[in-house]
Amino acid sequence: MGHWNSGELALIGIFTVVLGLLVYLDLFVLNKRAHKIPLRESIHWSVFWFSLAISFSILIYVMDQTPGDPERGKTKALEFITGYLLEYSLSVDNLFVFIMVFQKFRVTPQYQPLILKWGIIGALIFRAIMIFIGAGLISQFNWILYLFGVLLLYTAVKMYVHQEDEEDFHPETSPVIKFAKKILPMTQTHHPEKFVVKEHGNFLFTSTFITLLIVEFSDIMFALDSIPAIFSITTDPFIVYTSNIFAILGLRSLYFMLSGVMELFIYLKKGVSILLAFVGVKLLLPLFSPYVFGHEVHIPILISLAVIVGTLTLSILASVPHYLKTKNES
Q1: Helices (H) and strands (E) in the chain, counts
Q2: Residue 1 lies in a domain
Q3: 138 close to 45: Cβ distance less than 8 angstroms
Q4: Is 4 helix (H, G, I), strand (E, B) or coil?
Q5: Which of 56, 73, 182, 305 is deepest in the core (most CB within 10 A)?
Q6: Tens digits of residue pLDDT in 212-247
């Protein structure tokens, strides 16, 4: 996993303190009460988190310098930006799942922020565990990267061929949810603003808690693709984790900003499948390139960045006619 220099250690401290304060401010002070987040507020928060991520990449460039390696700061900054944009692109696809979950369980916009808030906190914890386990395994068994590549190619083909719609989506049939309902004492009363209530001296779980479980479980399933994908960009656990965290923190505000215009991302799943195929090939290329080219071939970070930005942009542009048609029909 490598040795962190003093600049990286300082970045870890800055990242932990500043992000901790901002998360607390966002989730527990400014958005303490359940309320529908208006479009303007969601835009402001989305711009804020995106600007903060770009600023952090600049901080990486400035502070992550190593004597004798003047390109290190630039390389790490580019890895962060590329990883962040990759995770952000994949996160937008995850918004479709959240929308369908809320529709299936009839969660009103007023209480959606509550579920997303705790879903994000859970995602931060699970992502940290999965990333550092993955980084530790890669440092000991480098061939795992090739396994990730095969997994991503399989997922890419499966996603491109199968387009899941709302009729196919049945989260309530998940084995995790069925098991939870069997072992957890459930209330029959509707409490959209609470996860646990006390009735007749007993603590009972609500349907809102079950919805949170579905959101959390879907994010874990999503992470099984997104985390191997970012390891195609870098195996530095600090870059992998921080880029993931920034993408997750911007997801909540992005959801409310885009929930009314998701038709603009109707072809995003196709774009995401192409991205997953690209990073899968990128992971497998060092294994097969010597047999094809006579030497190992690695895709430069700038090309990876261009592919990610280009694929996301083209998928949105391809969706514009469908979006305009939907608006005209309505």
Answers
A1: 11, 2
A2: no
A3: no
A4: coil
A5: 56
A6: 988 888 888 888 888 888 898 988 888 888 898 888
